[in-house]
Specification:
single chain; 5 helices
Amino acid sequence: MRSLWNEEAYAEIVARIRALTPDTRARWGRMNASRMLAHISDQIRMALGDIAARRGSGFLSVPPINRLMIYVVPWPKGARGPQEAFTTAPESWGSDLQQLLVLVDRLREKRHHQLWPEHPMFGKLSGDDWAALSYKHLNHHLTQFGV
């Protein structure tokens, strides 16, 4: 599984983020590019603890199910994420894009921290889990928008 800790995966994600435009159309789903940018930024904010998330509960939060969802199982198109990942409204394309790049870098700077917030769906996660989940989430939505 690719991870934001991996230099090659990180560089790939950054290049794909930079390839987005406000007019990039989704291949599936209802979000436009601006809303998607705000959404993936909110997921990174959850990983950083900037957005408080409820405690993970339900069968997806139980190991090994949560690890299977992060590392193995492909995500279906159109699956709804946690409400916390839809907190921030889009503002201006340029500043939202730059903010996402800053958030990804902040996540990478936190690599060696021991304490990580819980995910509202997947429960307790390590830094390695968050880095893999974040890569998978970014990849999912960047693929949705064809970049």
